[in-house]
Inverse folding.
């Protein structure tokens, strides 16, 4: 067995060495000399230049390998080829770090990109995967910055596990078919992820913090926004999610908290907002010019100043939990017996003037809110939930678990006391 292992290791070493082209200190010469399918290994060091790849190879850096762009051209340009992998390299420069165009099969992974205007620019390509890329932009206003990862006119794209900060848009997507954006973290930028003119898109398990807007979706159709955390977007035009002119969207299982507006729907149709957790937003959910089939159902609204607002067209509220609902459940079916009315004149004033929050629960505000609800109770589409949920199932399960834990703790305490007392008496 020992001899077989040695032969195996020797063969693997031979195969690895035979596929590797060592580039010494001239990166472009190594790229030009490599045959399709080979690995160009770039030793640690700082390489200035504008490198171009037009053949199916792999660029692999060591720890400390850095490509630095000269002038306004990108540090690395990849074009008119297929099956390219770039990994474990730091890139920097004045304008763009990587530009890829007309590539079928591109993988970018484990890259560090900093001090550039735009980090990754992909266009007219397909079968692209970008992952484990860390982007740090420059200080300054958003208008002076470029995007972290930008994809144009492409299809079958996966962008995952990247960390991006201080750019214009963390991930910018325009005119793309079939894209998955997942497990990325974008902070301190204009938009966390920005979709435009895109179809068949998914944004899953991403974290967006302290941007102007977490998710900006425009002129897009068939999109799923699921299990994202979107928090702390509190600028004057700050939104957790903003959908404008969007058709067929599902927004579910997201945590949306501490935003100026949690989710805003504008001029959109067939949008389903369900099973999200809205916490401590100034306005949790807002809709203007949305279609009749737009519905918010089974969500949890807690600690928001204003639960929902809309134009006269409104949207449907069905089976949501509201922490400010005061109805009772005589039928014991988990739903309140009287409708919940989300309309609140005072809440809308308070959104415009936060200082009004000091008057919450004052007699005049309670009276005004009561009048709002009586006036709007007869409406069917104006933000009235006829089946308000009294408690979410997970909350009930947690309470049940807490009761069980309390009983077990009490039993153990009493048992200990009994044993201690018995020990004294004996």
């Amino acid at each position: 067995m020992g001899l077989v292992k040695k032969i195996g290791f020797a063969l693997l070493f031979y195969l690895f060495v035979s596929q590797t082209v060592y580039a010494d200190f001239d990166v472009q010469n190594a790229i030009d000399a490599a045959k399709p399918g080979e690995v160009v290994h770039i030793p640690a060091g700082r390489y200035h230049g504008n490198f171009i790849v037009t053949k199916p190879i792999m660029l692999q850096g060591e720890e400390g390998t850095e490509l630095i762009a000269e002038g306004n051209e990108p540090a690395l340009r990849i074009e008119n080829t297929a099956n390219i992998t770039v990994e474990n390299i730091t890139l920097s420069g004045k304008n763009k770090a990587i530009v890829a165009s007309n590539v079928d099969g591109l993988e970018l992974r484990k890259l560090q990109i900093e001090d550039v205007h735009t980090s990754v620019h992909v266009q007219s390509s397909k079968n692209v995967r970008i992952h484990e890329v860390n982007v740090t932009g420059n200080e300054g206003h958003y208008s002076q910055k470029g995007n972290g990862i930008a994809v144009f006119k492409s299809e079958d794209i996966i962008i995952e596990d990247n960390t991006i900060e201080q750019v214009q848009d963390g991930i910018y997507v325009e005119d793309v078919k079939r894209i998955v954006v997942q497990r990325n973290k974008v902070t301190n930028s204009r938009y966390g992820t920005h979709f435009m003119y895109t179809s068949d898109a998914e944004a899953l398990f991403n974290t967006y913090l302290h941007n102007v807007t977490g998710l900006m979706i425009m002129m897009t159709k068939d999109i799923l926004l699921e299990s994202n955390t979107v928090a702390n977007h509190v600028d004057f035009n700050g939104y957790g999610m903003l959908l404008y002119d969007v058709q067929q969207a599902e927004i579910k299982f997201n945590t949306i908290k501490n935003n100026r507006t949690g989710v805003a729907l504008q001029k959109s149709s067939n949008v389903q907002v369900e099973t999200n957790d809205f916490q401590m937003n100034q306005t949790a959910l807002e809709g203007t010019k949305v279609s009749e089939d737009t519905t918010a159902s089974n969500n949890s609204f807690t600690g928001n100043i204003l639960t929902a607002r809309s134009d006269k067209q409104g949207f449907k509220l069905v089976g949501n939990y509201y922490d400010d609902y005061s109805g009772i459940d005589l039928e014991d079916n988990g739903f309140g017996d009287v409708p919940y009315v989300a309309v609140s004149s005072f809440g809308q004033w308070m959104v415009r003037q936060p200082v009004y929050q000091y008057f919450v629960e004052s007699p005049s505000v309670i009276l005004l809110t009561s009048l709002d609800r009586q006036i709007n109770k007869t409406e069917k589409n104006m933000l009235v939930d006829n089946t308000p949920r009294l408690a979410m199932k997970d909350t009930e399960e947690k309470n049940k678990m807490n009761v069980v834990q309390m009983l077990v703790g009490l039993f153990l305490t009493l048992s200990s006391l009994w044993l201690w007392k018995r020990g004294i008496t004996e």
